User: What shape does this take?
Amino acid sequence: MTSALSWVLAVNPVPWARAQMAFTLGFHIILVPLGVAWGAITLIANYRAIKKNDKDALVLAQRWSKYMAVTFAVGAVTGTVLSFEFGLLWPRFMGRFGDAFGIPFAIEGLFFFLEAIFLAVYIYGWKRLKPWPHFWTGVPIVIAGIGGTVSVVAANAWMNEPAGFTLNSAGKIVDVDPWGVIFNKAMPLQTLHMLIAAYLVGGFLVASVYAWGMLRGRRDRYHRIGFLIPFTVAAIAMPFQMLVGDELARWVYNNEPVKFAAIEMVPKTSSDVPETLFGHLNDEGEVEGGIAIPGLASILSDPSEGTSTVIQGLDAFPEDERPTNAEVNVVHLAWDVMVGLGTFLFLLALWYAASWVFRRRMPTSKLFLLLAAASGVLSVLTLEAGWVVTEVGRQPWIVRNHMLVEEAATANTGVWITFFAVLLVYAGLGVTVILVLRLMSRRWREGDEDPESGGPYGPRPTPARELVP
Amino acid sequence: MSDVVALILMVGITAYALFGGADFGAGFWDLTAGGPERGRQPRAVISHSIGPVWEANHVWLIFCLVVLWTAFSEAFASITLTLFVPLSIAALGIVFRGSAFAFRKEVTRTSSQRNFGAAFAASSVIVPFCMGAVAGAIASGRVPAGGKAGDPWGSWINPTSMLGGVLAVTVCAYLAAVYMVWDARRLGHPAMAEYFRRRAVVAAVVAGVVALAGIFVLHADAVYVFHGLTSRALPLVIISALCGLGSLVLLTRESNAGARVLAMGAVATVVLGWGVAQYPYILPTSLELSTAAAPDATLWSVVIVFVIAAVVILPSLGLLYYLDQRDLLAAPVVEPGTTDDD
Assistant: This one.
């Protein structure tokens, strides 16, 4: 026992804590867009169903709400794990900064409550509530999704741009300004960026399923509407995301120069900095490989100054206050992936819009459907890449310029065990979610509607007939 | 000010115990309902009973965590630092419980239903046990303040923690059984109502015995809380005992509405009694509430959020329970074991 214990004690918890947090967050973030945006997409279908007496839209809205019941449950429990992990993995961070960092979460708690309550009413209300009251019970889900996203991302933005607190000489928070915490400088653009991202991913992800169905020959009205509603939501959001993303990048240039140097992979401060696509920093910290577009990084950072815009390089910051070279490579690659895939999705949205403008119908070519079917997974990758940029780009800080990740971590040396436990459980969970969703879809396709969903808005049947012995 | 927020925290813990606890308890009865055929009907009642409400009830846990880490961050850090093991188990247990329950409703094959059902039911017992053990660790003063970790094992494997764990499981089972007598009757199923009524009586007796035995455990192992319970928290302890006895009497007389109210009263007063007994400490006897408390502006934020919750969330919850109790929320479920497609 003692020798086993001492072996366990020898493992440094910091890398494992980082890995576990990154993994659980990376998993949860896929479910977020479904919780945030799918409700709105479903309500659009629901609205159409009632207003135009559209049977296909009604079936879609019903089925989407049932899928949502599954993804929301998984999102709720994986979100709970994150709440535990704040303490389990980063107790010293929470102990010192919980007084400030916690405030946006208190507000998020309200929205989570609202979402859980009305999602239950909406999902379970199909049968016995009247159409319009039932529709309206879905509206708080949309509001809560937006409010929840804004609150959580405000907390994350605070880690990038900590504000709204006063420390005493011992480093303990003695005074807090809640507005300063919530509306920190990074909050407006970062929350907007994530909120639109949620609608993009939600839209592309749902639409991709129906694009796939159409490719498989199911080109009926049901599949077309199932594609049109979510894809249109994503296509409308796409140009706004390009604008917000561009604005945010410039904001990072002005306010988080270290992160920006990592994003653009700039080792030395200079003007006329090229935009390097791909490539990496070698052991000497020099850029190697990749395609350099002369001057473009400088031009994009401040168009009014053009190529004479100076970008601070990594060398402008002490080595222990900036990401390591390996981390810079991760940030830069993630950035390229995000921008590249984002641009691809933007072009796809343009194609879709052009077809509507010139031909008054959606594009139906095999190529478009193939790309649209891929857009779901690609948009998830884009989202993950963007999240990697902001998180890895902040290293080595957990609270920028105030606390290092290393200072925040737990002293519990058993974290590597929980990491593997979590990895195992979540791998199983991920596979099971997909299998269950596919099973539901196949069951419905084979015409096996479950007994309770037969006739929506119908009269109240005898309660729980399946209980009658 | 810190006392006000502590009270809000107690309200959250009580609500979680009364509503979230009952959902865990339902899992306990699911676990003990027997094979697929024998357990079909009780499991159907359980699914109906917690289906629409468990996620909303679960949010009380998030509420408690958020209030704790925002208002008493040092206590949160100390608790999570020392009680790493039971809290990690609880977190994973919550993942199993919630997702397995959601999956079980959507699969049709009996074997899949059984597997998801087993994951749901087993974790429904493990999670409250861990939570009870955590409460016991705090109550018995095994969580030190000041950034030092206590014993990673002894802190939660000890008499008071075991008492807390067993008490939590039995109390959850008791609450769930009492609620489900009501639900089964509402669903027009007197045989199931009788089924759960008998279980409610047994659970009430067991919970009472555990609580009684607990007095001796606390006397030996958690001195500060024991003194609190026998002095300033004594009225709450007495009310709890009376409520428990009263609900038992009403259960045997088949007066369900009253039994339900008294059962809730019995559990609520136990939780509140624990809070009053360890006052003014949040971690007896190393950290006082006022020392752990965040700056006033933060505490005010928590109070304001709580007031908004009272104005917006409570009526919403009321609406949910109202629709649920009026049977306006039809569970879109395929009942366990009713179809078998292979």
Observations:
- Strands of chain B lie at 281-283, 287-288.
- Residues 250 and 258 of chain B are 7 Å apart (CA to CA).
